[in-house]
Every structure is written in structure tokens, then in C-alpha cells.
Amino acid sequence: MAPVLTSPVVSTQWLADHLGADDLTIVDATVLVDATVLVDLGHDGHADPSSVSYETGRDRFERDGHVPGAVLADLLADFSDPASDLPFTRPGVDRFEAATAALGISNDSTVVVYDTLDGRWASRLWWLFRAYGHDAVAVLDGGWSHWLAQGKPYDLGEVTPTPARFVATERPGHWVDKAFVESVVAGDERAALVCGSPRDEYDGVSGPLARAGHIPGSVSIPSESLRADDGTLARESVLRDRLALVPDEPRTVVYCTSGVSASVDALAFAVLGRHDVSVYDGSLAEWVTDPAAPLVPVAA
Predict the structure, then answer these.
(1) Which pLDDT score is estimated for 209?
(2) Order of strands, edge to edge, in the sheet holding 137-140?
(3) Per residue in 75-100, pLDDT tens?
(4) pLDDT for residue 206
(5) DSSP string, 18-66
């Protein structure tokens, strides 16, 4: 019988206690960003997002280690839409089913996701699972760095999953598109807009896009502000205080540069029992390509 989850996040101790359990699949969702592209971004400090180089964490997974029994998810090729011009666009149902089944995950599996960075990639994959109808999924609190810091075991080398069968059921309300966000900005729809990007990007001081700033009416809750010093998610009391900045609206829409860091904000809301949250999948990577789309460039 698969382990039962009681929260969208699990501790390193919980996972260590359940290693080897039936129907438990541990997934490393790491994506590596080539920081060299950030060295020469031009005089305004911005770059075309297509110039940013991403790669899967496969070499790191095999060479530097992974949680015992973990499999590696490829968020670049398998869990994104290859036909999209935008980075990390969510995959269609068929693609998600195939990618999930290839990792050995079935509808009966309990899934725990982690990454080697700050949790954004794990949160993104967690959100995809939730959006496609799988609730038995959680993020490892603190990820790989916290796992190692706690002295937990790890394995090296390649892992070949045994394929399974997974049937996805797409749930409404987990995603919004540009048209919906435009209607919120125009006042035709009621929703709170939350930007999970770093504060400098929200303020328009810096950022990876050709235009910097935030969508009008947004509040800034950077995903990094939701984490404690040790990389774990902040305590619930801290999350409540920080998310209290969000206006009381029937719906909350979170976004960032490409819909990845925003998933950390969505995770924090879920920890507090808030399920009226949607991710703007295209996020600013889509928004800024429209010259007519309003953007607040610099905070007053």
C-alpha cells in the first residue's frame, strides 16, 4: 500500500522512513540554468529569454548522487510542450501521461518530488501532477541540499524506471491564459495577481526579459521570501503573514517569468489550505512579447 500524504510537503525524515515503500516514487526534477548567459546581457541588464540555456540534471544526478530509488524527470523535453515558443509551457494530457508512465508512476503511486536548487522545479512538477488530477504528490521540504545536510543516504549512477500506466484527468481552474489576466487588469474579472519573481524583477530594476516590471495590480511575493534560511518552506505562521498581502478576491493568479517560480507560491497557498489558486502559465515571458500589454516598469 502506498504511503499516505497529509500535506503538500514532506520532511526529509518522513521520506527516509518510507524509502522502499510500495508504490512510492521519488522524482528528481532538477533543471540546470547556464549562468554564463547572465554575464553579458547588454546595457539594460535584460536578455531575450530564448538566450538562456537550460539543461536537465542527468549528469549531476548520476555523478553527484540522488535520493535512493529516485528517478529523473526531464522538465525540458518530457514535461513541457515542445511546440511552444515559450519556456516550460505545460504539456498536453497525452504527453503528460506518457512522461509520467515512463517514470514508473501509476495512478496508485505516491509521488515525492525534489530538486537540487531552491524547490522551484519540484514545485512546478508538483503543480503539473495536481493539475492533471493526481493528489498523492508532495514536495520534499528543503530538497536535495537539506537531505544531504540531514545526513540522509544517497545513491550514485543511472536509474532505469520500470514503465507503468498513468491516466491523467485535466482539472479546470489550475491554469489561466493571457486573455484572462488581461480581463483582470481591465477590471472585467475579479482576481488577485501575485508575482513570484525576485523583487528586483518586480520593480523593473533587472530581469531576464526584454521588458522588466510587473503586471498592473500585482502584489510582490517573491518565491524566495517563502523559504526559511535552511531552504525549507517557511513556517505556516510566516506564510500566513506574507500571503496576507494578497487582496481578498474570489481567485488568486500567480505568475513569474515562465510559470516556474510561481509554483512555489502556489505550493505555499496549498500548505495553508488555499485551493482558489491558478498559475498563469505563459507568465511574463508571454506578456512582455505584446507591446500593448501594460507593464509597471519601476516602483515609485
Answers:
(1) 87
(2) 9-10, 137-140, 110-114, 24-28, 71-72
(3) 999 999 999 999 899 999 999 999 99
(4) 85
(5) HTT-TTEEEEE--EEE-GGGGT--TTTT---GGGS-EEESHHHHHHH-B
Read off the pLDDT of each residue in 33-52 and give the average, rounded to a whole number.
43
Whole-number CA gyration radius for the chain = 19
Q: Which residues contact 280 (CB under 8 A, 6 or more apart)?
A: 175, 176, 177, 178, 180, 181, 253, 254, 255, 259, 262
Are 208 and 47 in contact by the 8 Å Cβ rule? The answer is yes
Instruction: State the DSSP code for 214.
Output: B
**Residue 116 DSSP class:** S
Other C-beta atoms within 10 Å of 110: how many? 23
User: DSSP label at 35?
Assistant: G
Coil, strand, or helix at residue 185? helix
Which residue type, as a one-letter code, is found at position 113?
V
Reference 283, options 225, 226, 213; nearest CA is: 213
pLDDT, one tens digit per residue, over 146-157 is 999 999 999 999
Higher pLDDT, 218 or 54: 218
The torsion angles phi and psi of 57, rounded to 5 degrees, stand at -90, 25
DSSP state of 272: T
Residue tagged 515562465 (cell numbers): 258
pLDDT at 297: 83
Cell for 225?
A: 521570501
Return the DSSP state at 171. P
Q: Give the sign of the dihedral formed by CA 264, CA 115, CA 95, CA 55.
A: positive
